[in-house]
Amino acid sequence: MPSWEEEAGADLQRNIERYAQDDPFTAWRVYQEVLERAEILDDQPRLGRPGRVAGTREFVVTGTPFILVYQAQDGGVRILRVLHGAQRWPESEQ
Questions:
Q1: CA-closest candidate to residue 56, choices 77, 39, 70
Q2: What is the pLDDT along the chain (94 residues), one digit of tens a residue?
Q3: How far apart are CA 12 and CA 19, in angstroms?
Q4: What is the enclosing helix (H) or strand (E) of 27?
Q5: Alpha carbon 14 to its chain's center
Q6: If we measure between CA atoms, which residue out of 41, 30, 33 comes closest to residue 4?
Q7: In terms of Cα–Cα distance, which of 53, 46, 44, 42 is closest to 77?
Q8: CA distance 25 to 28
């Protein structure tokens, strides 16, 4: 099971709450998809592309607008952020 940074959990919750305002069913599906993909990364940490921030990797969650920013670590991954594809990343470039 991947470990989640507090900020990543907050990112996911905030984004899913926005979706739920318009379509709770889709919000639930997207939430489940993000969690399932994070589990896959835990087993296959090289699936994502090299990240825009040194030492990170990024995984586009197909079928959703989200990107998981993570670091591979011994025995799995640590999810650092859950970004919406429209977000600029890293924030220091803004």
A1: 70
A2: 899 999 999 999 999 999 899 999 999 999 999 999 999 998 899 999 999 999 999 999 998 999 999 999 888 899 999 998 766 656 654 3
A3: 11
A4: helix 24-43
A5: 12
A6: 41
A7: 42
A8: 5
